[in-house]
């Protein structure tokens, strides 16, 4: 992992610690597997091997300037081996403009999928701080019948972009139990949600999820 990303994460963690102190007393740790850790406060670092800052990165911590975005952005990802891209998906949950696709684990049920949803955040939706971003995640939870504890969330840093990690348990339209690793990544007016979902194939989904997040790019410029 890159030293630059760890340094940026440490600075973000200091800003975040006061906002989250009332929600969790656990120590901040660096990990990439918090599926069953209800109530823990963890830091998820998912990074690529590129040592150069992304275009628009601001090493001072100030918000970078982005061009005007008038439509959802299609994020760039690598499709993991053993998965097939199955086209556009209906992910109209938050009421924002969005574009979405799904990756299906070959030979498995529809419960074994990775969804990539890119939202264009409305001007009136604040998303510059962790608490503001967490408000969006909690709204999503309220709309999707989430069964996980409200305080089970973490700061995420995905290829230099900050966001929110949330492990949730939910059910599909047939009332079948599902587990999901959700990472909400923010860049300018765009929020990209990577939902890694499984019923039985946890290991395959976990590995592919990491590959997708490691390759994720949000091309605003």
Brief sketch in words of this structure:
The protein has 221 residues and is an alpha+beta fold. It is built from 3 helices and 9 strands; from the N terminus they run H-E-E-E-E-E-H-E-E-E-E-H.
Structural overview:
Residues 47-66 have a biased composition (Acidic residues). Residues 46-66 are annotated as: Disordered. Keywords: Signal. Residues 1-21 form the signal peptide. With 221 residues, the protein is of the alpha+beta class. The chain has one domain: Protein Transport Mog1p, Chain A. 21% of the residues lie in helices and 31% in strands. It is built from three helices and nine strands; from the N terminus they run H-E-E-E-E-E-H-E-E-E-E-H. It has helices at residues 3-20, 130-143, 202-215; strands at residues 29-31, 42-46, 83-88, 97-105, 113-120, 153-158, 161-171, 177-187, 190-198. Strands 1-2-6-7-8-9-5-4-3 form a nine-stranded mixed sheet, sandwiched between helices. The radius of gyration is 16 Å and the shape is globular. Mean pLDDT is 75; it is low at 1-42 and 50-61.
